Amino acid sequence: MSAAKHHPQGLTVLYEDRDIIVIEKPCGLLTIGTGRDKTRTVHSILNDYVRKGDPRSRNRVYIVHRLDRETSGILILAKSEANKIHLQEHWQETDKHYVTVVHGTLALKSGTISSYLAENSAMRVYSTTDQGRGKLSHTEYVVMKENRGLSLLAIHLLTGRKHQIRVHLSEGGNAVVGDSKYGTDRYARAHLALHARSLTFTHPVSGRRMAIETGIPDYFTRLVGSISPNESTDKSRELIWGLLPPT
């Protein structure tokens, strides 16, 4: 069969070898389904892909981490359980950068948002002063551009809690565009403007440090206009292009 027939439909493969596969997930697609959810997911699409149309194949992929259905961007999947476990055990060493468009402008054009995050029975994440209930979370940001009452931010995710970026920005009065869970606005029916733009990680077999990145989604530039490195400060250029080292 042709190679095109085995292309993972709806996904962009950014890197692949015998041990891992790195893809760009579009918004609206689940990373992995539940027992009751039979829709197509990143997991099911890539399992079909690595089996190359052979239902008897024992090839499969293993989820290392997840992105919310509404979030687009980079995902790493392993081709063996051992590689999955290795990547997860070393996940704190992974450097994660996002871009997002939020409502309004931020008084501080760069900074770090820190709080203890907890989740209630309605599965809504919130900040709490109760250190026993929440997990300490840090989100570093730099404003890249302000236009049309919106701001484009580069995000360095220093911790990886559920809905962390969305909650930290919403609680500061700058909800992510399109976020119907943590913000209500005229963009609520549009795509969520949150994209996992770059990951730097250690390969589970070779030990090589790898950096994978994508461009800024077209949807973001339709919201705030085009962005170039010349429009930003040195620090924001480094952060948005995924060059700022871990702190």
Features:
single chain, alpha+beta, 2 domains, disordered C terminus, catalytic activity, acting on RNA, PsdUridine_synth_RluA-like_CS, RNA pseudouridylate synthase BT0642, RNA binding, PsdUridine_synth_RsuA/RluA
Give a written overview of the molecule.
By secondary structure, this protein is an alpha+beta fold. It folds into 2 domains: 1-89, Pseudouridine synthase (2-Layer Sandwich); 93-247, Pseudouridine synthase (2-Layer Sandwich), CATH 3.30.2350. The chain is 17% helix and 32% strand. It has helices at 42-51, 81-89, 164-171, 218-224, 234-240; strands at residues 12-16, 20-25, 62-63, 72-78, 95-103, 110-119, 125-128, 135-147, 150-157, 194-202, 209-213. Strands 1, 2, 3, 4, 5, 6, 7, 8, 9, 10 and 11 form an 11-stranded mixed beta sheet that branches. A hairpin with an 8-residue loop joins strand 3 (62-63) and strand 4. The longest helix has 10 residues, at 42-51. The relative contact order is 0.16. Mean pLDDT is 87; it is low at 243-247.
